[in-house]
Amino acid sequence: MKDKIKSYGFIRGLRDGLPIGLGYFAVAFSLGIVAQKAGLTPLQGFIASFFNVASAGENALFNSIIEKASYIEVAIITFVVNARYFLMSCSLSQRFSSETKFIHRLGVGFGVTDEIFGISIAQEGNLNPFYNYGAIAIAVPLWSIGTSLGIIAGNILPLKVVSALSVALYGMFLAIIIPPAKKNVIIAIAVIVSFIASYICGIIPFVKELSGGTRTIILTVLISSIVAIIKPIEDKETINEMKTSHTDASVCEEKTDISKKEEEK
After folding, report:
1. pLDDT score at 208
2. How many other CB atoms are found less than 10 A from the CB of residue 252?
3. Within a 10 A sphere around the Cβ of 132, how many other Cβ atoms?
4. Could you give the angle at the alpha carbon of 199 between the alpha carbons of 194 and 202, nearest 5°?
């Protein structure tokens, strides 16, 4: 019975992960162009993508290599850009059955991405690790292969074509920031401020002497911290619970008042 549940979960994961993998393949191809500029071989690009599995993180990594950033800078910027996966992993950990072994939790954590997190959190009931394994088994290899093919194309195609293909990566980032910016004014303002601040930091004395990776780290931490302090995200569930508690308390008070009046009578 357990084997059937595992097999069914894995097959469902493969099915739901295929569209994600195809999307990853197209994006990773453009990312491979950047990796080629950083001097990576197809094998190195495959390994980097397989163990990183993060478009923004890898883009920051490859650009840091291009700018000859230090190992510490590369580590910090990758950590900062990928920090959101800690929150996603914590959220997914609450969906596991108490009987789920640590090795399965670790395996699922390896393949946490925005898209895989989205399809996983949408599952009803306890999360089946084999569902995630199925999604990871199709999405991660396509992501890694796409990066390798992008590097190969970068080595073969003319420079003008390579430059044109590298623009596709900016389209991917626009696709990431525009939808949430449309829904949330605060995010839209933060994005605009980050653009302006990035430009200013690139022209003012002393700061412009810092590497692009260091400037990105400073701006990311600074802007996100300011936004989090000024306009923190409200927990809707907590608010609803507070409203429910407040309503229940009001009802109890009313009942108590009615009881007291009846006793006085």
Report:
1. 77
2. 10
3. 27
4. 125
Confidence of residue 114 (pLDDT cuts 50, 70, 90): confident
Give the model's pLDDT for residue 231. 80
Beta-carbon count within 10 A of 95 CB: 15
- How far does the chain reach from its first CA to its final CA, in angstroms? 66
Q: Of 4-8, 51-55, 93-97, 196-200, which gets the smallest average pLDDT?
A: 4-8
Buried b (16+ CB within 10 A) or exposed e, 181-197: beeeeebeebeeebeee
- What CA–CA distance (Å, rounded) separates 129 from 12? 11
Measuring CA to CA, which residue among 107, 118, 61 is closest to residue 84?
Answer: 118
Cα–Cα distance for residue pair 263/127, rounded to 1 Å: 54
Contacts of 27 (CB under 8 A, 6+ apart): 55, 143, 146, 168, 169, 172
Number of Cβ within 10 Å of residue 59's Cβ equals 19
Residue type for 246, please?
H
Asked whether the beta carbons of 104 and 129 are under 8 A apart, the reply is yes
